[in-house]
Amino acid sequence: MRKTKGIVLIVLIAIVTSCNFEKKTEISQWRGPDRNGIYPEKDLLTEWPSEGPELLWKYEDLGIGHATASVTKNQVFATGTIDSISYIFSFDLEGTLLWKKNIG
Length: 104
Hints:
This protein has one helix at 2-18, and strands at residues 70-71, 76-82, 85-91, 97-102. It is of the alpha+beta class. The termini are far apart.
């Protein structure tokens, strides 16, 4: 019985160590994973189409301010100022507002 358990354990270890686990990097920090402006994506366009990229969605009630949106695998974050109050906004990837919080 012990010999069988040992063989099963060795086989499981062999299977796990032979699997190729691809590391997916979610880039949610400024200027990419190494903060150097170099991104690991492949097969990107080298030139924009004459009509530009397709607009997927927009939100017009952010108020004033200038900031870059931060994008994760399932949310988009942006900031804006409305009536002298700054907010952070969270959207799903379809542009639906999930929440808006006062940040001071």
